[in-house]
Amino acid sequence: MIEVVLDTNILHQEGLNSGRMQVLKRLIDVEFVRIHIPEIVKKEFISKKIHTTSDLMIKAANNLKTINSNFEKSDDFKIELQKIETDIRTKIEDIKNQIIFEYESWESDFRVNKLQFEPEDIESVMDDYFLGQGVYRSIKSREDIPDAMINTSIDRLILEVGDINVLIKDSTFKKHLTNNLSVTVYDGLSDFLKTQTIEALTNKVMVVDNVKDYFESIEANLVLTNYFRELDEDISLIYVEDEGLLNKDILADRVYSAQVNYPLSSNIENLKIDSLYALTAEKFVGDISFETDATVHFISDYRTYLDIQNDKNRNVDIDSMNGDGLCDLYESYKVRYSGQVEIILADSFEKSVVEVLMKSIKNNVGAISINFNMELCELLIVDA
After folding, report:
1. Which of 298, 292, 178 is nearest to 235 (CA)?
2. What is the mean pLDDT of residues 370-374?
3. At CA 205, angle to CA 214 and CA 8, rounded to 5?
4. What span, in angstroms and rounded, lies between the C-alpha atoms of 370 and 351?
5. pTM
């Protein structure tokens, strides 16, 4: 049995029902893998999801209220808008309950072993807090207390089962775990599934055939490149926030936050599908990446803006600046997106049939459905 611990950021990145999660579920069902979730991770995940969702609902209700104030003579319409606003506000509590229900359903389906924090471990948590040791980035770093509590649960699990695998992104916590010979650390579920041991196991439980190999081929990737170049609306809606942005340091020395949006579908190139798994003969999930041009919006200070302006190889524009000298800047960049892809066939087609359908994929969307979710965006350094 392969023992796996998932950290909060992995759950946020994957969601509970991503394609890779479905692959993991198959491995759990045949008892190759067992998942462990510290109680603190569960609380962090649910709390953040509730906060994010509730905040969006409140903003939507407030926006409706603002819109409503712009109408003066349309009483019936104003009443209807007010009803929608009220409905949204009353649904917030329902959404909280639904988030908890969905997580606990996932917990049950994935046979998750819950790691409780033991009260007696609080002494070691606080000792490290005052000394700035272990997972703490500095002395009395309050935001690291949850990680310290999670770490004690991981230590207890090691004593119980031996070697474990931890999927985690937090750099300080991850660095601490790499010093433990009983722990193998992975940046995410994708990296974990790509290991030779796991791939060997998935080959035993997944349907592997020529169709899967075709979708990973250069021929199929070229066909999909041309198809994606025509998906103007879908591609333009791709939005990657600060935490999913890689190589951000090339923007400037001082970047307080950054996002990438409005990618150009017409400039897509180097599209690649790999690490594809056949969940059934009709459903495939895997990784996808491609390069294109997109707009990077980032916040820096006015001095940094002036420094960039002096670089003849840069073309950055300023959108606004506040009283503290913080500037909203934007610039076009060559980027590489990566994420998950889901390919669904209408039937268990042979490879030869799939090849014919792919050649006219735009006209065969009922037979082949391609869904994607881009999670990360890397800023590329283009030679001058």
Report:
1. 292
2. 93
3. 95
4. 17
5. 0.73
Specify whether the backbone of 373 is left (phi greater than 0), alpha (psi in -120 to 50) or beta: beta
Give the separation between CA 67 and CA 120, rounded to whole angstroms.
Answer: 54
Residue 31 token pair: 């008892």
109 phi/psi in degrees, rounded to 5: -60, -35
Separation between Cα atoms, residue 97 and residue 249, nearest integer Å: 40
Contact 368, 343 (CB under 8 A): yes
| Radius of gyration from C-alpha coordinates of the chain | 24
The whole-angstrom separation of Cα 242 and Cα 221 is 28
Q: C-alpha angle with apex 230: 226 to 236, nearest 5 degrees?
A: 120
Nearest alpha carbon to residue 25 among 87, 105, 145:
105
Which CA distances in Å does 241 have to 50, 62, 106, 375? 19, 23, 26, 9
Q: How is residue 333 written in tokens?
A: 């960049």
What type of residue is 383? D
Across residues 188-195, what is the average pLDDT? 88
Angle CA 121–184–276, to nearest 5: 130
Residue 219 to residues 330, 359, 377, Cα–Cα distance (Å) = 36, 10, 25
